[in-house]
Write a structure and sequence with these properties.
The protein has 68 residues and is mostly helical. It has a domain of 46 residues. It is 76% helix and 0% strand. The protein has 3 helices and no strands. The radius of gyration is 23 Å and the shape is elongated. 0% of the residues are buried. It comes from Eleusine coracana subsp. coracana. Belongs to the UQCR10/QCR9 family.
């Protein structure tokens, strides 16, 4: 119970600290999952990838003008 009590004293005793801990944990978890999925995607697609076409401002303007 020592670890659980210490965790409660440090993180969950005050609401502001708890909310900060949850938000920071969500951000770190999202970054870790994004990095892992990106590496897995690149590992599975070696040799079949293509370089994306660069978007220029004239292309974006032409698309916007055609929508209007």
């Amino acid at each position: 119970m020592g670890l659980a009590d210490a965790l409660y004293r440090v993180v969950m005793r005050r609401n502001a600290v708890y909310v900060t801990f949850v938000v920071a944990g969500a951000f770190a978890g999202e970054r870790a999952v994004d990095y892992g999925v990106h590496k897995l995607w690149e590992m599975n697609n070696v040799g079949v990838r293509y370089s994306p076409l660069p978007l220029t401002s004239s292309f974006v303007v032409r698309v916007q003008m055609s929508i209007l």
